[in-house]
Specification:
Shape: elongated
Largest sheet: 5 strands, antiparallel
Number of helices: 8
Radius of gyration: 32 Å
Number of strands: 12
Structural class: alpha+beta
CATH topology of the largest domain: Beta-Lactamase
Bound molecules: adenosine-5'-diphosphate
Helix content: 40-55%
Distance between the termini: 73 Å
CATH superfamily of the largest domain: GAF domain
Order of helices and strands: HHEEHEEEHHEHEEHEEHEE
Strand order of the largest sheet: 2-1-5-4-3
Length: 395
């Protein structure tokens, strides 16, 4: 091979490798060698490991012909033969040139794709109306097949790594959850046990005010336990999709005000400001939506203590938008993508009690309404949760 060829191949290889997206890498691979190897369409077929059917993984039309997908039918027969024989398949039209319609004369070249030490796909080139594939063309095609297989193997490895990361994160969260939940269950139980034992002591007489105080603590801690258990059951039902929703037209602006009033009776220190647009009703489950709002209020109280909470609503035609903005410490950007995952708590969040279920529950409820929930946060400025819901289509 002369220096020119080597240096050209080096440039192509570098460019193919530099692309982050496997499809972009394949595009570069096929377009950059077209100076030496012209074809109209290229299709990559991969065998589905379970059904054994052939799926089109990549298709690109370069020249004559219709679309890459439309011509993929030509290629499928060749790909099937490649997989059956595990060898290159060359199909040239029988009556070269006689037929004027070049599109009716596909020259097909199929190359086996060896991915993870197994022939499990085919790279098929289609050339309408010739010329026939030369030895050089076949060599280039074989190089491209080798390269494509490596790129697909790299894609598969990347996907497997992402999945593994997510499973590992879930396992870590599950571990954390067990220790969090045992703490969360033990704390209220400890209070209930401690104060009721004190009240039952024969040798001590408590005055009325103290008795009331103890009973109040027992009452509050029992409520906390109930909430915790409800959250756990609810998140399990949401995950198994067995939670029932009762949909009817709901005015979310009125609903959010009601919830705010309720929250304020227990937490008068929370300063809530409203900027409410009149909204069209949404088709929703009022009880579940209240639960979402309660969670966001409760998080503002827990994680942005002393801050104002501004609630705004906006009508976006067929959708409504709600925003809950606090002026707390904010959340570091790196943690934002995981906030709505089950059991996720921002690392180091150990002083404030919680289970990491609240935002997961919110997201599942909003999704059951065909809506979206997301968060934006700026350190030292505050956190805003947004909820977008579709307006009731029947009204
Ligand atoms: P929990 O409150 O039980 O930990 P959530 O799912 O409600 O679980 O919240 C997940 C995490 O998101 C919390 O642990 C907290 O670190 C963070 N977070 C939620 N809301 C806010 C907020 N308004 N400001 C700062 N951090 C928040």
């Amino acid at each position: 091979m002369d220096n020119l060829t080597l240096s050209f191949l080096h440039t192509v290889l570098k460019e193919v490798q530099s692309k982050h997206d496997w499809k972009a890498s394949l595009d570069t691979l096929f377009t950059s060698l077209r100076g030496s190897f012209v074809f109209d369409n290229v299709v990559i077929y991969l065998e589905d490991s379970q059904s054994k059917s052939l799926d089109i993984t990549y298709a690109r039309a370069m020249g004559r012909g219709k679309t890459a997908e439309a011509d993929a039918v030509w290629g499928e027969r060749v790909a099937t033969e490649v997989l059956a024989t595990k060898k290159m398949v060359l199909k040239e039209p029988k009556h070269l040139g006689r037929d004027k319609d070049r599109l009716a004369q596909p020259h097909l070249l199929g190359m086996p794709l060896n991915i993870a030490s197994r022939i499990c796909g085919a790279l098929v080139f289609i050339r309408f109306g010739g010329p026939e594939y030369s030895d050089l063309h076949i060599k280039i095609a074989s190089l491209q097949a080798f390269w494509s297989a490596a790129l697909i193997e790299r894609r598969d490895l990347q996907e497997a790594r992402t999945e593994l990361d997510s499973v590992q994160r879930q396992m870590r969260l599950q571990d954390d959850f067990v220790s969090t939940i045992s703490h969360e269950l033990r704390t209220p139980l400890g209070f209930i046990k401690g104060y009721s034992t004190s009240l039952l002591r024969q040798d001590t007489k408590w005055d009325d005010a103290t008795q009331r105080e103890f009973l109040n603590i027992i009452d509050e801690e029992a409520d906390r336990l109930t909430r915790l258990i409800e959250d756990m059951l609810e998140s399990a039902r949401l995950q198994s999709k067995t939670l029932q929703f009762k949909f009817s037209p709901v005015r979310v602006d009125a609903l959010v005000r009601d919830v705010a009033t309720r929250v304020n009776t227990h937490h008068p220190e929370l300063k809530i400001e409203f900027e409410l647009d009149i909204l069209p009703p949404v088709l929703g489950d009022g009880v579940r939506l209240s639960q979402v709002f309660e969670n966001l209020f409760s998080n503002a109280i827990k994680y942005a203590p002393g801050s104002r909470l501004k609630i705004s609503t906006k009508s976006l035609g067929k959708r409504v938008l709600l925003a809950f903005a606090d002026e707390g410490e904010g959340i570091p950007e790196d943690f934002l993508p995981f906030l709505f995952e089950r059991f996720y708590r921002v690392p180091g969040e150990r002083t404030v009690t919680g289970t990491g279920l609240g935002l997961y529950i919110c997201k599942q409820i909003v999704m059951a309404h065909h809506g979206k929930i997301w968060v934006e946060s700026v350190l030292d400025q505050g956190t805003t949760f947004f909820i977008e819901l579709p307006a009731d289509p029947t009204l």
